[in-house]
Design brief:
Rossmann fold; 3 domains; 4-stranded antiparallel β-sheet; 10 strands
Length: 413
């Protein structure tokens, strides 16, 4: 929990105590008001009953009334008093019902910004024609705070295109716009030649599979979360995508296997396990378009390589867009688009971008590999005989990585 990470348990407890104090005060005020109302009604009823009984008794003594008249007056007074005892409760419940109705109608009157056109046709797309095209797209979350400025590019059907850039350059925004979580202020987005504004929202999102950077899981079993990509999938299909995502063996090692509860938002799983679940259920959805928003950021290099190798066959026939910070995951992309300050700064494949003098992509690549280079050129060299077996294996692996990086013919790193 965040408050435990920062030793703020006392602060949170005091805040909660303050909220409870406010609730207690309001509750006491409500109860006191109702008690005063009931007490007032009881006093009035008692005084009235006493007065009527005295007058009726005098009438009987005077001979103008009978005992039956006294019983009738007493019964009528009780019939009048019983509804009055509930007056305070009924008033309070009526007021609460009016408040709840007002909240409900306010919620119903909220107008969504993403609107589907009347009688909009469904998006008709197959993997062979799932071309994505951004045409002069401008977008800003807040007025005056531009995120995308005139972005135009095309992702051919069946190709793998990667989008890279610094933080805040608009990479994840492209995914959100394509899935129609937001609408661009200017420009158009097309899938298979159809403007996504003119097609049914449900069919659009059915055709696009997303692996988000922050994978949110339901408080249920691992099997439930995997099958959520396609609730009609058979158990064998779920197991198959789990194998492709490299999580099947890890699940079987758990005490309850696929029936293991993942906890609220998947807190019982590691970050890498959550990302693998997200990858698996996106594969299970089997859409013609796949979007990966930093899908392997929480995985170790070996698991990442295994998953990417398994997915090569899957993305061959699908249009795929990779949002990446770790450039090693998109070296094989058909095209790499480099964003800078909301605009396309560079585009090309891995080798051509590295060979371009002053390339922003080359700077990003060199920055990510600088740690390996620095460790290679470090003046302090430990003697092999003084290293443990694990350290020797780590050093050997590091040297192999260095040799592979330096052996790239077109690398300027």
């Amino acid at each position: 929990m965040p408050h435990e990470y920062f030793n703020n348990e006392k602060y949170e407890a005091e805040k909660y105590d303050g909220y409870l104090k406010t609730y207690e005060s309001s509750s006491l005020k409500t109860t006191s008001t109702l008690a005063m109302l009931n007490f007032g009604q009881s006093v009035i009823f008692s005084v009235g009953l006493t007065g009527i009984m005295v007058l009726a008794s005098k009438g009987i003594m005077a001979g103008s009334m009978t005992v039956g008249d006294l019983v009738m007056v007493n019964g009528l007074l009780f019939q009048l008093s019983l509804p009055l005892n509930f007056l305070g409760t009924v008033y309070r419940e009526t007021r609460q019902a009016l408040i709840d109705m007002n909240t409900l109608f306010t919620l119903l009157s909220v107008d969504t910004k993403i609107k589907e056109r009347d009688l909009a046709p469904p998006l008709s797309v197959t993997p062979q024609e799932a071309t994505i095209r951004f045409e002069d797209v401008y977008f800003e979350y807040l007025e005056g705070q531009k995120v995308l400025e005139g972005v135009s590019f095309q992702v051919p059907a069946g190709k793998k295109v990667a989008i890279v850039g610094g933080s805040g350059s608009g990479k994840s925004t492209i995914v959100r716009l394509l899935f129609r979580f937001y609408e661009p202020q200017k420009g158009n987005i097309y899938i298979a030649g159809q403007n996504i504004r003119d097609v049914g929202l449900d069919s659009l999102r059915q055709a696009v599979g997303v692996v988000p950077q922050d994978a949110v899981l339901f408080h249920n079993t691992i099997f439930y979360n995997l099958q959520y990509g396609n609730i009609n999938a058979t158990p064998e299909e779920v197991y198959q995508v789990a194998r492709l995502a490299g999580i099947h063996d890890a699940i079987l090692r758990m005490p309850h296997g696929y029936d293991t509860q993942v906890g609220e938002r998947g807190l019982k799983l590691s970050g890498g396990e959550k990302q693998r679940v997200a990858i698996a259920r996106a594969i299970l959805k089997n859409p013609p378009i796949l979007l990966y928003d930093e899908a392997t950021s929480s995985l170790d290099s070996i698991t990442e390589e295994n998953i990417l190798s398994s997915m090569k066959g899957l993305v061959q026939d699908r249009t795929s867009v990779f949002i990446a910070h770790r450039l090693s995951t998109i070296v094989d992309a058909d095209e790499i688009i480099v964003l800078n300050k909301g605009k396309i700064a560079e585009r090309g494949d891995h080798h051509s971008l590295l060979a371009t003098p002053g390339s922003l992509y080359a700077d990003l690549w060199n920055t990510q590999n600088s740690k390996i280079l620095n460790s290679r050129n470090s003046p302090v060299e430990l003697q092999p005989e003084r290293l443990s077996q694990k350290e020797q294996e780590r050093k050997k692996l590091q040297e192999e990585i260095m040799n592979s990086v330096k052996g790239c013919g077109n690398c300027s790193c």
